[in-house]
Write a structure and sequence with these properties.
Order of helices and strands: HHHHHHHHHHHHH
Largest sheet: none
Number of helices: 13
Helix content: over 70%
Number of domains: 1
Length: 247
């Protein structure tokens, strides 16, 4: 792999490729270590066994509980570790709808930003030398559609968020644009999952039934609305622009 990197035009020793490879290895090591130690701690079965202690901690130290939950979510989302969906449901149960949505919204956006920056500063040069044409098409689509392009991707559940974070880091999109569009675009899905978690009577029931056990027709309707929301917004914006031009 080192020989291949050395042959890359944008990753010669003078461009600091060794430092980038080492930093990427450190990030991968941190992610693997966290997953190894947290895979059981963040499981629904373990959290269900600690339900009473978690509630007591929330009552005694609500601010610390919130900050720890936020940091954990940023780490899970930023390092693309599995379990973000289950964690969202747990936060809805633990904090309630409004408080849980606030934590998950900023946690997921903060994590997305971490993944975005890792991709941009550690992978961008190497990937651009191999996928320059594909990245050019994405840049062109973003220039053509503006922030709505990213907003649409955020609303489509079929596109995994960790892929969006990584790919957008390779493009020319500004970090500030990525932040606010991601915050807004992920909000409907966040609200749906947090609300579902807030209706769970106990973590034990969630652990026993799984995610499928809390799906209702209201939840399915909410996800259906989220799916068609980009088309509705796009059509509304197009009509508004046409009306403004006509006037």
């Amino acid at each position: 792999m080192v020989d291949e990197l050395q042959r890359s035009p944008g990753l010669q020793p003078g461009s600091g490729w060794i430092k980038k490879v080492l930093l990427l290895a450190v990030v991968a090591g941190i992610g693997s270590t966290l997953y190894w130690f947290l895979r059981d701690v963040l499981s629904l079965e373990y959290l269900a066994s600690q339900e009473a202690q978690m509630r007591a901690w929330q009552v005694d130290s609500p601010m610390i509980a919130t900050m720890v939950a936020l940091v954990v979510y940023i780490a899970v989302a930023g390092l693309s570790l599995p379990g973000a969906t289950a964690l969202t449901l747990v936060y809805g149960w633990y904090f309630g709808f409004w408080h849980g949505m606030l934590v998950v919204s900023f946690g997921s956006t903060g994590g997305a930003m971490v993944a975005f920056l890792i991709s941009r500063y550690l992978l961008r040069d190497w990937v651009q030398n191999r996928m320059q044409e594909r990245l050019r098409r994405i840049d062109e689509a973003f220039e053509r559609e503006g922030a709505f392009y990213l907003f649409t991707l955020r609303l489509v559940p079929a596109v995994p968020f960790f892929i969006i974070n990584a790919v957008m880091g390779l493009t020319k999109v500004r970090a500030t644009t990525f932040w606010w569009v991601s915050q807004l675009g992920m909000l409907p899905g966040t609200a749906a999952y947090v609300y579902a978690g807030s209706t769970v009577p106990s973590l034990q029931s969630l652990a026993n039934d799984g995610v499928a056990g809390i799906l209702s027709w209201q939840m399915l309707l909410a996800f259906a609305i989220i799916g068609v929301l980009p088309l509705a917004i796009k059509r509304t914006v197009t009509r508004f622009q046409s009306h403004s031009t006509a006037c």
